[in-house]
Amino acid sequence: MDTTTLSDAALPAGFDISLKTRDGNPGLRGNYASMAADYTVPQAMSDYTSEQQARWLRLVERQLALIPSRACKEFLDAVNGLTALDMRRGIPNFADVNVALKAATNWTLVAVPGLLPDDVFFTHLANRRFPVTVWLREEREFDYIVEPDIFHDFFGHVPMLFTPIYADHLQAYGEGALKAKRLGGLDWLARLYWYTIEFGLIREKGATKAYGAGVLSSPKELIYALDSPIPKRVPFDVMTSMRTAFLIDDVQTTYFVLESFQQLRDDTAPDFTPHYEQLKREGA
Ligand SMILES: [Fe+2]
């Protein structure tokens, strides 16, 4: 995976890119020196500068202007209805958000220096902990960033964690990913993550809306995914998504559309072992 061409901070945390991080790849940031064994770090609120706070606000305002007609109801309800998700108040303090999130779905946010090794990331998900990068993109990266920052991780991912069925799915995904790693199926399960958690669309009262974090946190991709006639929008199917290679350096050519979050839960509930064996036979 070429880390220099990743667009819009949509890469699922984890996967092989993280190994480069640990090796000190200069293209990746984050202070990994002071982290705990589970890769968590303190979120030092006083370290955020006034310039960063102002940049955060501009990122938030730009995206809030785009989501009313494009984000799914669950995302909008959380962003519009929860004081803890009032992102206009500044860069969020994870400890404050955790009070509301814990009460809603028993998830907690953990601060991390950046991308994590696969097993660390999936272990957090399996334990209902969502890793959020602590640092914010630089001004020159306002429209384009190489790796996930706090804006992608928080704006894109955190509101959906307040929806119980989605939150339960994400925990199950973490458990499934740890199993997939043992079975050699992680590349295929990564595609499922990509086309759901990062770039997923969903039908809602006859319209198509976004719930994927990579779409919701990127102005370019949000407009493209929902408004452009160019990309394919196909009904969500587990095996089709696992057979579909994804782009990390451009907007997607294909988006998978759920009928409901119940469909996501139901379709990903079975044991995937036969899926991996089939995909292995196909050389997918
Ligand atoms: Fe993400």
Reconstruct the topology from this structure.
Blueprint: H1 17-22, H2 50-66, H3 73-81, H4 94-105, E1 108-112, H5 118-126, E2 129-133, H6 150-157, H7 164-183, H8 186-198, E3 201-204, E4 207-210, H9 213-216, H10 219-227, E5 232-235, H11 238-243, E6 254-258, H12 261-267, H13 273-282
Parallel strand pairs: 1-2, 3-6, 5-6
Antiparallel strand pairs: 3-4
Helix pairs in contact: 5-7, 7-8, 7-12
The structure holds fe (ii) ion.
Can you describe what's shown?
- With 284 residues, this protein is of the alpha/beta class.
- The chain has one domain (3-282): Aromatic amino acid hydroxylase (Phenylalanine Hydroxylase, Orthogonal Bundle), CATH 1.10.800.
- The protein is built from 13 helices and 6 strands.
- The strands form 2 sheets. Strands 4-3-6-5 form a 4-stranded mixed sheet. A two-stranded parallel sheet has the order 1-2.
- Strand 1 (108-112), helix 5 and strand 2 (129-133) form a beta-alpha-beta unit.
- Helix 5 runs antiparallel to helix 7 (164-183) and helix 7 packs antiparallel against helix 8 (186-198).
- The longest helix is centred in the middle third of the chain and has 20 residues, at 164-183.
- The structure holds fe (ii) ion.
- The site of fe (ii) ion (FE2) has 9 residues, from helix 6 and helix 9.
